[in-house]
Design goal:
This protein is 71% helix and 0% strand. By secondary structure, it is mainly alpha-helical.
Amino acid sequence: LLALLNVLKEDSYSLSEYEVSIIAPCLALHVGHKIQRFADNYRSMMKLISELHSPQKFAQFVLYGIDPRAIRNSISRKNNLEELARLVVKEGWQVVGQKGLRAIAGQIDSHESIIRESALLAICTAWEKLSRDSEKLLQCVGKSLSSKGETILKQRLEAKGGTPVPSNDSKAASSVPEHKRGSTVSRIQTSSGNNS
């Protein structure tokens, strides 16, 4: 199949959505093959398919390959995350879209270190494409991050030189006008005096 895909690329052939829908899920499933030679061939085929078909549409099949409910092989999921990172480098974060970013971010708090690291790689690649705008990235991934995952991501972004992002609690406190904060303190002090 790898040789065939290379020939198709030389002939400037475009794979149909039907053809990709047959091949891509199989590659996403087996890209973590225990025999490294096979795994490498599968990764090469994935790269070729992204060039013979719409990268955005192909990315959706790769996203299927990071779901632990669909694929139990952690090496396959890791390799699929790395393929997504490669696509983001080449095409921009829009290749996976906001929904895709959320799916990737959801893997950051995985109990498997290889999944965590690969998810962080893909998300940090998207962050680079967002001009290192940490707040915008966190808005994109939304509520897909657990509190643990959000902490891990913020620490990684800061380690890469990103601007520290305030926690939601800090934002909430800073959004309260100064005069209201003062009156709140006053009420607390009055209440404490009455209790004594």
